[in-house]
Amino acid sequence: MPTAPQNTDELYQALEENDRRPYGRTRTVTAEELVDAAEQFAEPVPLVHALFELQEAYTYGSEPRKSPVVFARLLNLFDEQPDVFDERRRHTLFWRFKWVADALRVLPEIPLAGLRQWQTEMRDRYEKAGLGLQPYYGQAYQLAAHIGEGTTLAYELWAGRSRTGLSDCEACEICERALYHLAAGDDERALNAWEPVLAGKESCQEEPARSVSHALLPLLRGGRVDRARELHLAGYRNCRRNPSMSSEVGRHLEFCALTGNEARGLELLAENRNLFGEVDSPLDLFDFLTGVEVLLQRVESLGHGELPAAGYAGRTWTVAGLRAEVRGRADDLAARFDTRNGTTAHTDRRRARLDRAPLVDALELTLRTRGLDEVAPAAPVVAPAARTAAEVPESLPELILRARTLDEQGHPDARACWARLRTLAASRDYAHPDDPAVGPLAQLRADLLSDEASRTGEKDEFAEAAALHEEAAGLYEDAGAQGDAAVARACALLAVAEIPAVGAAGAAGAGGADGADGADGVDGAGGAEVKVAALAAAHAAMVRLHEEASGLAPHQEARLLRLRATALGMRLQTSGDEAHVAPVLAEADLLLAFATRHDLGGQISGALLLRATTHALAGDLPAAVTVIDGVLDRLKAHGPAWHLPRTLALRGRLQLGLRDAQAAQADLAEGLRLAADWPADVVDTARLHADLAEVCMHLGRPDEALRHLTRSAELELRRGTRTDAYCAYSNAAQLCLDLGRIEDCIALLDSLLAEPDVAAGEVDDRLVAQLRLIRARALHTGEDLKAATTEFVVLAAESAGWDDDPGSHAMIAAETAVLLGESGEFGRAREAAEQAIAAHAGAPRYEQLSGCLRELARLQAERQGPEGLADALANLADAGRIADEARAAEYEAQGRSLDTALAYEHGRVNAYAGEYEDALAALEKALALLGEPTPERGEDHAGEWAECVRLTAAVEGIYLERPAPALNRLDAAVSRLTALGHTEEAEPLSSLANRLRDGE
Q: What is the helix (H) or strand (E) element at residue 882, kind and residue range?
């Protein structure tokens, strides 16, 4: 707290501000400071309020030991100065007797006699105050259930009594009744009792999160798998990282362990590592640790005890090591509770949880379904088992020669050989074969560098790839392999040309790559021109390199020709210049002729694919398809088979360009089927899934598209192309949101934002901001306004520094303003809107900004009535200036015009504020701007016009008490709409007309 309150008004303001903070150390420390401040004033009432706030902070901040101490002070104040406690404060005091009972129960060091003594105190106080005893019997039942004795009688004494004003809320009592049935083994009765809470009809501070966590396993046992999945996603989000809900987190971890989602369980455990050190309630900690152990036990039983796990601070943990630590601590807690209670209830409950077998083999909880094998660091991508890969030779000389032969052919199995050789060569006892056929060690080192450079380039890390190719070229020259050196230098030239913002001069030699940024993408038109020049220079350098090289083997010369053609093809792709088409075709023809002469099957198909893509880039899609058809015929007859998936993928994309989505889907699906025979990274299975997602959207199959998107993203992630993976996941999350799968969307984004490289700030900040923006929108759609607003406010502050992208800041600030308006914080909303207006000046966002200002005006007029009218009209005046700018810029809105929308909003705002004449005039203007519906204007226009007519007639007929003209307006509108077949749009107008006639 910056400064202590100097008077009671400042104290109350500070208490209100602290009440808005989330529970945790910051809120608790501030509450402690506010109690100290309140003690400086002579008035007891402020102290009572400060003590109430402090007890709440301790209770929901999981510090049960301190809550009774604070309450003792309050009780003394009540005994000494009862007049200080008005009806509301008195109610709060007696309510919190239950809080103290709960706090004492969770502390095993409090004797059982002490618990019963407090319950007696509660009963005596309630009787003396003339209060009903149902809350007391509720506490008696909870103690019996905790101990595990006398539960049935205690339940009947509580459940059979009528509720009072001090009873626990409906949601909490529902949960207690359900837990009683659950303990009795009656899952169905428990679930029936829980239904109002699970359906969202009853809720409180702790509910439905508590009930959801208990209901998950009964739902699974009853076969209601989808419901369990849905509640897990929503329920976990509401309790994660919260020390006061650590028990619930433990049950969600247990749910993951028993549904084949062990990898997700470890991910959630990592997200909640703070709970190991922040949970002060022994009972909550006992429940949490038992859930953790269920998960770790399951992971270890599957043979993954060596996996890393998030645990207590101060050291690194494996699953096995953390399990042993957790087991010891949880066993100790169970023993302490059982000793205090004189029963074995906690040991028995713990053993029952640990002895549960998995309830389903595999339940797909999220869109990122991963196994434990994928949790291990640097897990390799394993080729599917559909094709038996060639065995890697055991003999070292054979292995080296085999790798080179496969590499010359471009065969996918080459990578397995290089991987094996990389491992062997890195060992301390490696001895290079003394075999002239194998060549010197320098040549093998160059081979390995070349393979590494190729894989690095596939990740768009072009500067690093160029450096590796250059290093390999030097080693090849040392080994006397001049042809391989020439190919390596040509590869370096192409990699340098692909580095963003590298000029043409830098492309003349690989030395220009030093210190270049390896980020992908081209920065605007200027960047495109630079890249075009760089690629042209790279091609010229390759031609010189080719002309100067001697003694090239056919496969080496073919690779040089392929690189030359590729450089020109990339230049055409970047420039789109028709003049760049012929040079690509010429180079492709050179390659085709050479490869045909030397019977190099892979290069023949490569040359033909270059021709097809060139036709496509030139806009001649039919010609491209004709070439591809020939390539496919040749591949099916002569191979190589691993080119088929990529070729089918290209034809699928071309078919989509020709607007034949069905044919595109057939080609891509066949390509995906054939891709299963080869390693995913070699045949680019991720791209196939991404293309299929796009096709499925064209075919109106969004759920199938979502599956392909997430599969594409996970494949990109596994092969290390993380930026591409996060982009694909961003698209998947947005599609989830569009489909209304809100919890799936949020769970996916939570998982991504918890990835180590994202958390460490190693991923592009704009990409991460996009993920967070989608999440904030999903939270808003899911009606979590507080969380959504918090995220939007942070994003707006961050995007304010995006000087190169004011348009995005304008959009984010505008959305933030609307959410703040929905929260009733109109001052902050206006500040955000002003930020949006300022950013809009640099990058116009007419429609978004106009919509923001109109919505703010509506919200303020609706919430504040006449008092908010002036500010609402100020927002509309700004929206009017935006509309003027849009008109001057000849901007056309996607729906109704900005002027029409503005006139309509003037009508609504004035109506909310009671200025009905102004409202009527504005609405009539909106009707004139809209124009009457016609067959050409369609259903959407008819709906907008009908709503405007309805509101106009309501203002005129009801609020201005002029029913006759209002009825004339309505009857004419109904006739017009009915004649056009818009009967649904006419119904609200007919209903209003009937209401007006009844009023007559």
A: helix 869-888
Confidence of residue 514 (pLDDT cuts 50, 70, 90): very low
**Chain-centre distance for alpha carbon 34:** 38
Asked if residues 45 and 84 have their Cβ atoms less than 8 Å apart, the reply is yes
Q: How many Å apart are CA 557 and CA 303, to the nearest integer?
A: 50
For residue 526, what pLDDT is reported?
63
| Phi, psi (rounded to 5 degrees) for 499 | -70, 125
Place of tokens 């990282």: 241
Reported as half-sphere exposure (CB side, CA atoms, 13 A), residue 352 has a value of 10
Backbone region of residue 576 per phi and psi (left: phi > 0; alpha: psi in -120 to 50; beta: other values): left
Q: Which helix (H) or strand (E) holds 547?
A: helix 524-548
pTM of the model: 0.81
CA distance 656 to 791: 38
Query: Strand, helix or coil at 976?
Result: helix
| Token code pair at residue 85 | 């406690």
How much is the average pLDDT of 941-969? Answer: 95
Bridge partners, 318 (sequence order): 308
What confidence tier does 451 reach under pLDDT thresholds 50, 70, 90?
very high
Distance between CA 208 and CA 198 in Å, rounded? Answer: 6
- What the block records as the tokens of 867 is 């008092």
- Residue 37's contacts (CB-CB under 8 Å, 6 or more residues apart) are 4, 5, 11, 14, 50
Q: How far apart are CA 507 and CA 490, in angstroms?
A: 11
Q: To 5 degrees, how large is the angle CA 207–CA 209–CA 213?
A: 130
CA distance linking residue 449 with residue 469, whole number of Å: 7
327-366 pLDDT, tens digit per residue, is: 999 999 999 999 999 999 999 999 999 999 999 988 999 8
Find residue 317's DSSP bridge partners.
309
Beta strand residue intervals within 245-333, DSSP E: 308-309, 317-318
The DSSP code for 387 is S
**Alpha-carbon gap, residue 675 to 643, rounded angstroms:** 9
If 0-12 CB within 10 Å is exposed, 13-18 middle and 19+ buried, where does residue 700 land? Answer: exposed
Pick from 860, 834, 812, 825: nearest CA to 20: 825
- DSSP labels for 162-179? PP-TTSPPHHHHHHHHHH
Q: 880-894: per-residue pLDDT in tens?
A: 999 999 999 999 888
| CA 111 – CA 145 distance, rounded (Å) | 16
Give the contacts of 510 (CB within 8 A, at least 6 positions apart).
Answer: 466, 467, 469, 470, 489, 492, 493, 495, 496
Structure tokens at 34: 């506010």
> What tokens does 520 get?
């992908």
Which positions ≥6 away from 818 have C-beta within 8 Å? 829, 852, 855, 856, 859
